[in-house]
Each structure stands twice: as C-alpha cells, then as structure tokens.
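Before a colleague's protein record goes any further, I have to sign it off. I want your independent view on whether this chain really folds as the tokens say. The record follows directly below this note.
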Amino acid sequence: MTDTQQGAESAPEPTTIVTVPGTDNFHSPSSAARALANHRYAQSQKAQEEQPQEPEAGAEDATTEPVDESAQADAAPPQEAPGETESPPEPEVKLPPIEPPRSWTKDEKDRFAALPRETQEYLAQRETERDRETRRSQNEAAEQRKALDADRAKVDQARQQYESALPILLQSLTASYSAEFQDIQTIDDVQRLANDDPLRYTRWDAQQKRLAGVQQEINAAQQRQVTERQQKLNEFRTRESELFVEKVPEFADEAQRTKLQNSAVSVLKDLGFKDEELAAYWNGDQDISIHDHRLHLLLRESVQFREMKKNAKPLIAAPKPPVQRPGAARPKGADADARLQALTQKLDQSSGVNALRAGAAILAERRKAAR
C-alpha cells in the first residue's frame, strides 16, 4: 500500500453543512430554533413520502420502525411563547392641556378647547409670538416716549432760561441806548441826525431794531405763558369737576349745579369776597392764599357743620304747643327755635348737596338770631 492510498484512507470525510432556507436573518434565538424545527419536519415528511409502499398492511406494521419521541418533539413546530413576538403596548402618555390666551373671552376659550390639539398648539404659539411682539413694540414706544420727554424737558428748561434773560437783555440795551443817544428825543432830532451824521444814524437805527426785536420776543413769551396757563387751568377744571361729580352725583344735574353754585357764591359774599375777586379766581387771573382770613372763616364753618352733623342726636317728636287764644303773644324766639328745629330735622334727613344747603341755612338762621 502506497503512501497515497494510506493518506486517502485515513482522510476524514467532509462535513455536510445543512442550510436552512429563510434563516439568513433572525431576530431572536427562539425564531432560529423555530425555523430549524420547521426544516427538520419538512425533511422528515419528504423522507416518508420517498419510502416504497408495502403490499400488505401487516408487513407495513411489522417493518415500521418505532418513532423516536425526541425526534417528534424536534420535528414538531414549537408553540410560540406569549409575549415573545409582540411587544407590550406602550402606556398612553396624557399631555397637559393647552391654556387659551388670557385676553380671549369665555366664548372664544370654549371654542379653543373644542379644537384639535395641533390647532391649539398653532394658535397658542401665534398668540405668544403676537404678545411678545406687542410687548416689544410697547417697550420701544415707552423708551422713545421717555427720550422725547427728556428732550422736551431740556428744551423747556432752555426756553425758560432764554425767556427769563430777555428782560435783563432789554434793560441792558435800553441803558446803552440812553447813554449813547440821549439827545435823540423827537422825530426832528432823528431827521437832523440822518442828515448831519449818517454813521451815527446807522448805529441808532440798529439799536432801535434790536430793542424792538427783544421787546417782540418778550411779548411772544408772555402770550405763550398765558396760553399754557389757560390750558392747564382748563384741564384742572375738567379733572376737578369730574372728581366732584363722583363725590356728589347731584351736581351732574344742570339745575342742581346752578342752584348750588349760586348758594356757594352767596356764602362767599357773606364772608367778604367781592365779585371781581371771585371772577379773577375763577378765570385763573389771581390765586387765593391759604392765609386769607375769609378762607379761614369758611373752613371754620365747615368744621362746625361737620361736628354738628356728627354729634346730632335723633329727633324726638316735640309735643304740640298748647292752643293759644287769639291775640295772645307767643314767647320770644319761638319762631326762630321752630325754624332751627325744622332745619336741623331736614339736615338729618339730607345728604350731599341738600345737606350742604341745610347746613348753610342753619348757620344763616343762627346769625340772624344772634343779631
């Protein structure tokens, strides 16, 4: 036996590799095992079909080999374990609700809640961007307004300084003019100056124009100050009238307002104010001082009226006066006491403008009784 033959006899047989179709890609070991079992079962069925058929059933039973239970177990397709192929459902995540814009009305918010979530997100984002842009524009406008106010304050300050310097400048120019052109008093002096000394006449004419220009600036400043003061006074009147109507609603009625104004003028005249003074106060041409004694009297009567109203006791029905015979004289001061009692009762039952009128009537009655 040659070496070649020995090598051929001793060489191992080639290993057969079983290829399972459809097993190129497995997701898990169980799927690979299931594929292998299916392949073995298919091969076993094919082998049984290729075996020759015996003529007799008994012979077939005799020649039939016992089936290995382990092979059957390997050949049978394994049952799928629950939960291996299908992943468990993920728990549903409940998203928080989207709040509608705060500036919307209740009906708009209800309609917003009925919209799909994507639409709600879009609208909420648009509203947020709009609010952000609005705030940015407002901030820019506020900054610009603040800068304009600062510039206006500087301009007003410079103008006030300029206007306050105008009278001083006019006084200085007048003094210079009087010192240099003291001899020029009439139009004939001016004509003679123009004929005799044209150069001096030119200086005189320039000085006249400067004086006229400064005087014109002073007049314009005074007119502007009057206009601004009147405008501020009108704004102050409007604001204070609105506040007074809030405190005394009866003042909104034209008839009640006229009646109260007339009563107030009468009280002020009784305290010593004159018509021309009241007109000057009303038009803003004159200011009243807090040290004015007439104002002190008005305040004192107001304090007395307030204390009297605060300490007023509830009225008790007074007994009826005894019946007097005709011709009998009534006690002295009985009429004044009856009027004061009636006015006091009216004061307790009144408020606002009516209470002021009743208080003023009580003070007038007391003054009359004192006289």
Remarks:
- The two ends are 173 Å apart (CA to CA).
- Confidence is low (pLDDT under 50) at residues 1-12, 14-18, 56-67.
- Residues 156 and 162 are 10 Å apart (CA to CA).
- The first helix runs from residue 3 to 10.
